[in-house]
Amino acid sequence: MHLTKHPLALGALLSASTASAAPQGGFDYPTPVGTVPMMRFSCTQLVVDRIDPLVNPGSVPSPHLHQIVGGNSFTPSMDPLAHDLPSKSTCTTCTFSEDFSNYWTAVLFFRARNGTYKRVAQHQEEGLRGNGGITVYYIPNADSKQTVTAFKPGFRMLVGDASAKTPNAPRKVCHRCMPKSGDNRNINCGPPDTEELPSKHCVGGIRTVITFPTCWDGKNLDSPDHQSHVAYAEGATPYAVGPTAKCPDSHPVAIPQVMYEVRWQTQEFGPELWPEDGSQPFVWSTGDPKGYSNHGDYVFGWQGDALQRAMDARCDNNHCSVLKEQPVEEAEKCAVARHVEEDIDGWLTKLPGDVEVQY
């Protein structure tokens, strides 16, 4: 996502109802009321593995495959009372070297005419560099007079439902069929985004967006479903960006909005490889060919008060004067070994974990 002179966060392209002007990305100065600064940065691939310490802690393997970025202390078990990410990590795949959080999503596969599967590669968004992975956003309130409270150690949350077979509510996980370059129409799962996987060949690949809640109950660092301790604001427009509107009384604390963008290189699989009936050939690692089961997991791991400093400074894009940065070459050195030894890169007769596709 970009403007003419500078790469810019997707969400900073605001509608007239939420902003008077778009911020000029990449500068660290206070942002006036009516614009939304977006800390937007790359986190390159840490590992692609069949583990999930949030939903299936301790299970090796977990039911389906994930792609993970962030700090290298990522393990099958990350007990919030014992696993302190900043102290246990020695490196991170993210731009800001004080961010040892972990971020992960499901993985997209292509299904060929002969019924075999191939994992779809990823690439970073325009204006950013990195080996696949996720583009991560942290978004403060559009009103510079309103502060947000950074997450606490041990905080974690989940958006989406890996078992979903029908549209979710609220609509916060979506797909966009991308052109060869640029597409700044609407934001935050606004049209032309869909919950379903695109039905046509996308010359710029498929972009997925996952948008997390902006209100916290102020007490619980997690909940049994990893969702109930957070909520979306009341009265926010369907595609609002950042902590807008009013937090409900049950969840009174405004928190930064975390958002993921992932660019899947589906353009590498041309129409000549698609099923003869022209039906879309992509399927999530959950066995979902519709698109409803994609999901995002988040485990907070910023060092000290680094995230709070960045939100107070209203940092924009992938540079922030109050944070330490590392070159992408250093971030790409950070990696961990897979816990589950299985073929995930060749042409497969079944999805990893023998997951059945649910048509």
UniProtKB/TrEMBL annotation:
Keywords per UniProt: Signal
Claim: Signal is one of the keywords in the record: yes
Signal peptide: 1-21
Pfam families reported in the protein's UniProt record: DUF1996
Organism taxonomic ancestry: Eukaryota, Fungi, Dikarya, Ascomycota, Pezizomycotina
Parts forming coiled coils: none
Residues of the DUF1996 domain: 52-302
Transmembrane segments: none
Signal found in the keyword field: yes
Name the UniProt record assigns to this protein: DUF1996 domain-containing protein
Domain of life where this protein originates: Eukaryota
